């Protein structure tokens, strides 16, 4: 179990989020949801150690070193003429010498294949679309083998097919590796379908941390997203959130 203690989080002089305590099970995918301006990005940057306020991270009661935390911001572009394979290998740049061990190259190719990117291995990063770059950078972070991975809108630049594929692969990776993944998501249906737990932010505080069904109640969605929600079930019995304009 990962325990995260966060102080009050600010953006400049403005208070964005009240202090909070988070618990993330190892091997789980946790979604952060909330309306625009709720503080999702601020929260993730604090977890990654990129804010002025110092978050305390523990795993099974022991303080977690920052090097064990991976972070992927919402918007990041690689303009270097670097191949996709080399970009992934740089995820373990601390362990690279004058030559790259064949086993490490094989591991990089394997993880690219897991995310459907094997055919892009020789392509230059600066030749890829925004969505393709986002997928490669996600793989790079995973290649570092972080214990805790924080992702800000990891599906924002992807089409529907790749949104589903990325979240399914992330969930599978978390369960296989024991990594705790926490991701900001705008799509409540995707959060309900793929996340083990959901954190709801609103009104400058943590509203709840619960299962998707427990977190995304009609009353809570209506109150914080200012819509009239219709909650359905898909063919796999997963929760579907259909928003309607408030009448």
TrEMBL record:
Domain ABC transporter: 1-228
Record Pfam families: ABC_tran
SUPFAM superfamilies the record matches: P-loop containing nucleoside triphosphate hydrolases
Gene Ontology MF terms in the entry: ATP binding
PROSITE patterns according to UniProt: ABC_TRANSPORTER_2
Keyword vocabulary terms for this entry: ATP-binding, Nucleotide-binding, Translocase, Transport
Domain of life: Bacteria
Role played: Part of the ABC transporter complex HmuTUV involved in hemin import. Responsible for energy coupling to the transport system.
Protein name: ABC transporter ATP-binding protein
Organism: Rhodobacter flavimaris
